[in-house]
TrEMBL record, chains A, B:
Residues 35-50 have a biased composition (Basic and acidic residues). Residues 2-34 form the Rubredoxin-like domain. This is Flavin reductase. It comes from the Bacteria.
Length: 220, 220
C-alpha cells in the first residue's frame, strides 16, 4: 500500500501512513492513500487510467470515485505554514502545522488543529497555552526541522535562533510574526484537538510575504 | 472613528465597523480600527509617525503598540476564499468566508467559522449541514455578490449559476471544487461559531489555482 504526503509529495510504502513525513515532517493526517497502478508507458495505459487522467482537468471529473473527489476537493483549501510551540515542566517543543486561523477579532482569538499523538499537543494540554511563529517564504528548513522526528527524544531548538515570549514559550527569531495565546476552549475532533486561543501578545519581526502551503509545495 | 476592511482596504467612518463591507462584503469582524492622523506631507510628519512607519519594516517594530502588533501579526495568517452555503425551510443563502480548513483526514472533517449574526449561520443551525464552494482566481465577483448585503432580504443566487448537491444545498457552478458537510460538533467562540463538519460529498469542477485572501486583496 502506498501513501503520499500531500505537503511535499513523499511516497511512503506500508500498511499505514508514517507518524511523520520524513521529508517535510508533517503528521500522518497529511498522507493520502495512492491507488497503485502497474508501470506502463503512455500508450499502453488502459482506458480507466486514461479516463482518470482526463478527468483531472475536466469539469465533470467523472473518472474519480466519491472518495477521490473528497480528497482532491479538500486539497484545494489554502493554508499558511506555521511552527506551533509550547512549553511545560521545563520542556520545550514545536511542530510544523498548516491549520491556524483567526476566528474572532473582539477579542482576538485564533484556532489551531493539533494531532493528539504529538508532543506539542501534550505540552499545550499541560500548560494551557501555545505560540505561533508565522513563517516567511524562506522558512523551508524550519518546516523540515520542526516536522522531522518527535520532540520527545530530540531537541528541535538545538542550533535554531529562538527567544522566549512573555508567556515563557519559545518563539522563532527568523520569522514574519509571532503570536502567543492562552487556550480559551478546545474541541475533540477524533485524531486532532481544535484549540481556541485568546491572543495575549504578538511580534512583527519581518516584512516579507508569508509562507503558504502551496508555495512550500512548489519550492521545496 | 475610522475602520479599515482587512480584506479589501475599504475605509468606513463611524462609531462601529459596518455589519458587512460594502465593497467586498465580508462581515464586521474583518474591520480593524485605523489610528487617525492629521494629513501632512512626508517632511512635516512628526517623529511618532516616522517611527511607526520605520518600525513597519524593521524586525523590532518598536513603534507599534501591543494591540497594533496583534492586529498585524494575525493578518499574516494565510487563507483561501470560499462561498459557504446553507439551506433550511425552503430558504437558500450563502456568504463569503475565509476561515475554512481541514482538521482530520480519517474521517475527513473540516471546520468553518461563521458570524452568529449572519443568515447563513441561522440556516446551518437549523439544518445541521453546509456547503463550501472553493473559489478559483476568477471568483472576485462571487466574493462581492455573496458578501454584499444580508441574504435575509435579497436572493444572492439570482442570476448566479448554481446547482443542488446531494445534501440539497446550493453549490456554485463556476468554482474549483465544492464540498458538502454535516455538522459533527460546534464551539461557541463569542461573536462566531466554529462548526466542525464531516464531509459527505465533494466535486472537482475546475483545474485553476485557488483564490487566496492575499490574491484577492492584490487584484480586487
Amino acid at each position: 500500500m502506498k501513501w503520499r504526503c500531500v505537503v511535499c509529495g513523499y511516497i511512503h510504502e506500508g500498511d499505514n501512513p508514517p507518524e511523520a513525513c520524513p521529508v517535510c515532517g508533517v503528521d500522518s493526517s497529511n498522507f493520502v492513500r495512492v491507488e497503485e497502478e502497474p508501470k506502463q508507458d503512455e500508450n499502453s495505459k488502459d482506458d480507466s487510467v486514461k479516463n482518470a487522467e482526463a478527468a483531472m482537468t475536466s469539469p465533470a471529473q467523472t473518472g474519480l470515485s466519491p472518495e477521490e473527489k473528497i480528497v482532491k476537493a479538500v486539497q484545494s483549501i489554502s493554508y499558511g505554514l506555521f511552527i506551533i510551540t509550547a512549553a511545560a515542566n521545563g520542556k520545550d517543543n514545536g511542530q510544523a502545522a498548516n491549520t491556524c486561523f483567526q476566528i474572532t477579532s473582539d477579542p482576538v482569538q485564533i484556532a489551531i488543529g493539533i494531532n493528539k499523538k504529538n508532543f506539542t499537543h501534550e505540552l499545550i494540554m499541560q500548560s494551557g497555552k501555545f505560540g505561533i511563529s508565522v513563517l516567511d517564504q524562506n522558512g523551508h528548513d524550519l518546516v523540515r526541522r520542526f516536522g522531522y522526528r518527535s520532540g520527545r527524544e530530540f531537541d528541535k531548538f538545538d542550533g535554531i535562533k529562538a527567544h522566549r515570549g512573555s508567556s515563557g514559550i519559545l518563539l522563532l527569531d527568523e520569522v514574519l510574526t509571532t503570536v502567543e495565546a492562552e487556550v480559551a476552549n478546545s474541541m475533540d475532533t477524533g485524531t486532532h484537538t481544535l484549540f481556541l486561543g485568546r491572543v495575549t501578545a504578538a511580534e512583527v519581526r519581518g516584512s516579507g510575504e508569508p509562507m503558504t502551503y502551496a508555495y512550500f509545495r512548489k519550492t521545496k
